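User: Design a sequence. Structure:
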């Protein structure tokens, strides 16, 4: 038996390797083409959104109000040290009666000069404690409310940031859907124009049909260019939030379904908003803080009682030189100086404001009116919250029906267009009817996109005004995205060739 020496062709041997390489390249390309999702944009915005960073800094500054206004109620300890070098020079001239001179009782003139150089050290430590200070106590209560105001406002800012991210993201998808509709319309009208010109050349239609087709096509080009610019602007809006360049995002899955709000009752959402809306919480806390400020101003006429302990020490070291001269003698004497003076003082101070030129009364009136203002703003915030909740709930309920109606309108417009084009082919319809049917179809497609994304944003806004919006809501929307079907920054070129 002969041994077979047949070998596989070299090309056939390389096929498995080529397949593996191609699969690897396709996989890498898929990884590279992975689009940004709503959650990706949100997590990047958490670290890079400048508005949120400013809100965070405002929050950290605001929560210090409680510590600042509590400080006057706590012990105050101060220490002071002073070092000085003193040079003194004194001259005195006068007359004195001699008692042991040549002639007792003689009046003689004298001159006395003294110079001294000293190093002084002063040490002081003081402890003070408010025993009774009503304005400081009410200010502390105001500080606690202001700290809570900062917390509530930052919570509102966080929810507002989530809504900004969602709005910017779905505005990109909205602009892309509108652009797709505009491109499809432009292509259809370009084809329609070409067919109309051909029919005109063979005498099957009038020149007015060509003009009508040309005008419709030119308008579609302008709409497509506007839609392209809107898409690029909305992509740039994402960059403002994240500080990064974004080229692709993930669209909604085709199976995305709209649903009415849960719970369905509008009154339930109003109750949620009155209990949880962070802007309303901040307004209520501001009203409480203003009330305590008014009480603080009203109690400024009361006495304040303060206790204090102090310790003082003075050391002075140096020399003093005294030169004395009169008619009978002259002396020059040097004295060392070594002073150590210490004292401790315990005191209770009662301060009673009697008259301050009307300042206390003016402060009291101002604080009282500011309290009235804060109360009115709280009532206004409550009314606005109720109204906004009702409006958004009604909008979401309407959006659910509007999305369904617009979706059906697209189907109907497509059927109407097909019928009109068939009628045009057999001569029962004219070109104007076809152009109107095409315009109706693409307008309905645009309105459907607007209704769909309005529903999403209004649903998130309803949760925000009710104080219920959380990152979990963005995660639930993120699940309804398809990262494999990318929406690109650079739009597809239209028939005119522009991009």
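Assistant: Done.
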């Amino acid at each position: 038996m002969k041994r077979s020496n047949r070998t596989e062709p070299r090309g056939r041997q390389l096929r498995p390797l080529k397949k593996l390489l191609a699969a690897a390249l396709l996989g890498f390309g898929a990884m590279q083409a992975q689009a940004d999702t709503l959650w990706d944009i949100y997590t990047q915005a958490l670290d890079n959104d400048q508005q949120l960073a400013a809100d965070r800094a405002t929050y950290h500054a605001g929560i210090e109000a409680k510590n600042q206004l509590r400080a006057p109620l706590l012990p105050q300890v101060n220490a002071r040290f002073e070092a000085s070098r003193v040079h003194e020079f004194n001259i005195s001239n006068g007359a004195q009666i001699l008692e042991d001179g040549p002639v007792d009782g003689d009046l003689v003139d004298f001159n006395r000069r003294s110079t001294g150089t000293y190093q002084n050290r002063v040490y002081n430590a003081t402890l003070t404690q408010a025993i009774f200070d009503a304005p400081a106590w009410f200010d502390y209560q105001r500080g606690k409310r202001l700290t809570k105001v900062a917390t509530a406002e930052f919570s509102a800012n966080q929810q507002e940031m989530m809504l900004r991210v969602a709005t910017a993201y779905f505005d990109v998808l909205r602009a892309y859907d509108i652009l797709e509709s505009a491109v499809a319309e432009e292509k259809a009208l370009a084809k329609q124009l070409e067919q109309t010109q051909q029919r005109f050349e063979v005498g099957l239609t009038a020149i007015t049909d060509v003009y009508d087709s040309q005008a419709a096509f030119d308008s579609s080009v302008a709409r497509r260019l506007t839609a392209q610019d809107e898409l690029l602007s909305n992509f740039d809006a994402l960059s403002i939030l994240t500080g990064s360049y974004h080229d692709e995002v993930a669209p909604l899955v085709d199976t995305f379904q709209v649903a009415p709000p849960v719970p369905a009752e509008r009154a339930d959402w109003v109750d949620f908003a009155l209990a949880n809306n962070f802007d309303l919480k901040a307004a209520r806390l501001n009203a409480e803080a203003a009330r305590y400020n008014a009480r603080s101003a009203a109690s400024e006429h009361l006495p304040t009682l303060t206790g204090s302990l102090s310790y003082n020490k003075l050391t002075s070291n140096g020399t003093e030189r005294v030169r004395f001269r009169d008619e009978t003698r002259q002396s020059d004497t040097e004295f060392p100086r070594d002073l150590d003076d210490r004292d401790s003082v315990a005191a209770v101070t009662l301060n009673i404001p009697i008259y301050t030129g009307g300042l206390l009364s003016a402060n009291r009136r101002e604080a009282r009116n500011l309290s009235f203002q804060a109360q009115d703003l709280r009532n206004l915030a409550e009314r606005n919250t109720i109204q906004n909740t009702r409006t958004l709930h009604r909008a979401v309920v309407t959006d659910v029906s509007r999305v369904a109606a617009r979706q059906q309108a697209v189907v109907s417009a497509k059927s109407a267009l097909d019928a009109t084009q068939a009628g045009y082919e057999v001569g029962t319809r004219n070109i104007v009817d076809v152009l109107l049917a095409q315009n109706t179809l693409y307008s309905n497609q645009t309105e459907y996109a607007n209704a769909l994304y309005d529903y999403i944003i209004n649903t998130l806004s309803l949760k925000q005004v009710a104080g219920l919006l959380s990152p979990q809501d963005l995660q639930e929307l993120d699940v309804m995205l398809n990262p494999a079907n990318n929406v690109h920054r650079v739009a597809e070129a239209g028939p005119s060739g522009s991009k």
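Confidence is low (pLDDT under 50) at residues 1-33, 491-499. The chain has two domains: 38-74+133-303+357-488, 78-131+305-351.
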